[in-house]
Amino acid sequence: PIRGLPFLVAVVAAGLACAPRPQLCEVAGAIMGTTYSVKVVTPKSLGTDARAALGQLVFGALSEVDRLMSTYREDSEISRFNRAPAGVPFALSAPTVEVLLISQQVSAESGGAFDVTVGPLVDAWGFGPDGRPAVPPPEDRLRELAASVGWQRLHLDPHLGTLTKESSATRCDLSAVAKGYAVDRAARALETAGYRDYMVEVGGEVRTGGLNDRRLPWAIAIENPIPGSSPIHRVLRLSGIGLATSGDYRNHYEIDGARYSHTIDPRTSRPLSNPPAAVSVLHESTAFADAYATALMVLGPEAGIALASERNLAAVFLVYQGEGVAEVTSPAFRAYLEAQPTEPSTDAPAPSAAAVRMGVG
User: Fold this and answer.
1) How far is CA 203 from each of CA 172, 182, 357, rounded to the nearest angstrom?
2) CA atoms within 13 A on the CB side of 52
3) Which end of the chain has fewer CB atoms within 10 angstroms, the N or the C?
4) What is the Cα Rg of the chain in Å?
């Protein structure tokens, strides 16, 4: 084998000139409470009708995921499940079952560090629609909420395509995996339509296929989280792989000098006390990368690298060190770096011209 706020990525078209030069076409828009950008490379420029068809293809793939899994929509499948009674199997579509299977697997592997039922705790700590509380939630309130939180309280039957919850107060929020899944769905739609060279980004989660218009793997730059520093921490060359990032530094608040992170540990019902700045994960499935990035963020560098090593995940932690950040990397990530192509001198990233938003989960 990278919930949240914007995280910067640079997508750089670079490589060797060829004749005739391949053409780059981009479609962009808004979906799932965030933005998306898709770039495809074609032998020649697309006409008006072809560009419109490309836009419809991408939007159709993304809007299906939004229709099924977005908690922004009262009519979505997952919102209807959240209103359903306990103990009654709720019929789900195949895509939602697929995302829940991914979620349950990562929850089990991470010992519950990833948990799609954590939403009530996120809201209680002031990172939901009601905003920040004047004081931290009291212990009795946290215990009450914890009784309805826990991935084991969800019972998925993938053969029947049903999901059952033990408590009516239990609800699912798939935002830490659904954006990555939407990226994969859009990439699949592009490949089915014959597009082999592409970059898909939804809320910062990225997947690439083939080569860019300069005939090199797509260059993706991960943001430096330190204000006032160079905006780029590292550039990765990606082809046929997904990248997702979970980050903390943009979304937190303080009460009486105590810092509260937007990343809640489902195991303790509390925000992370000393979180890394960000965690990025490479995986052939962007949905898995999305979920693993959140799990590793909660686990922290030591336990997170242990899990990444066990699962052969290419993961990099950015941890605060003095006035900057240091990298803590998994063996698979170091191996990926060693296999990166040598950069031509003319292939310097230009984030001011090619930056897109990257969501952090």
Assistant:
1) 19, 10, 6
2) 3
3) N
4) 20
- Give the whole-angstrom CA distance, residue 189 versus residue 196: 11
pLDDT tens column, 144-195: 999 999 999 999 999 999 999 999 999 999 999 999 999 999 999 999 999 9
Residues whose CB is less than 8 angstroms from the CB of residue 103 and which lie 6 or more positions away in sequence, other chains included: 114, 116, 151, 174, 177, 291
174 and 328 Cβ atoms separated by less than 8 Å? no
Which position has the higher pLDDT, 230 or 139?
Answer: 139
For 31, 150, 273, 278, 296, the CA distances from 300, given in Å and listed in that order, are: 30, 20, 10, 10, 6
Residue pair 359/178 in contact by the 8 Å Cβ criterion? no
Do the Cβ atoms of 11 and 26 come closer than 8 Å?
A: no
The share of the chain scoring above pLDDT 90, in percent, equals: 67
End-to-end Cα separation, the chain, in angstroms: 19
Is residue 73 over pLDDT 80? yes
Distances (CA, A) of 147 to 12, 80, 120: 47, 21, 11
Quote the Cα angle for 297-149-117, to 5°.
Answer: 60
N residues, the chain: 361
